[in-house]
User: What shape does this take?
Amino acid sequence: MKHTPGPWEVEPLGREIRGADGGPVCWTAGGSAWAGTYGSGSRSVQQALADSHLIAAAPELADAAEQIMAADSAIAQGAQGADRYWDEAMAVLATALAKARGET
Assistant: This one.
């Protein structure tokens, strides 16, 4: 199952994240650090699970994006061994994407 289509937006008070269709994707409860994904209404339980996998992979996806940008910069500057940085960044991205898809 695929996650809720983006872009996703944080509502002004920061209590919900809403999908492109305006429907809620996830929320926080009572000002605590707890959050959950919606599996009712416009979202199926399977889609909520896919959203959970994507959210859990977000830090790794952000790290991969940072590594890709650094590798691209190294390549643009002609740094020695820059291709190796690119290969490493792609490996980090592949792992993060597998996590986001719920494959790991």
